[in-house]
Amino acid sequence: MSTKILPDSDTQSDVKPDLSHGDGDHERFAHYVKKAKITESAVTGTPVVALCGKIWVPNRDPKKYPVCPECKEIYESMQSGKGGGDE
Ligand SMILES: [Zn+2]
Asked: Where is the composition biased (Polar residues) (predicted)?
């Protein structure tokens, strides 16, 4: 009867840096996108276009990120045209 002992292989401290792809800022902000588009993207996996023009796949929790200042500005200018209703 033999017992196979696996080698202790997790001694390597391979800490991966937080690599960013592309220009990166679309990964750091929560952009404004029509909710229907986000829902569609969740189903189809296709990227969406934010108000500021960023194209990305909203696959993360937007609540973890600050709101994109560009999107916020555009969104607020849209809201001001409707009488400033608070949602
Ligand atoms: Zn944005």
From this structure: 1-12
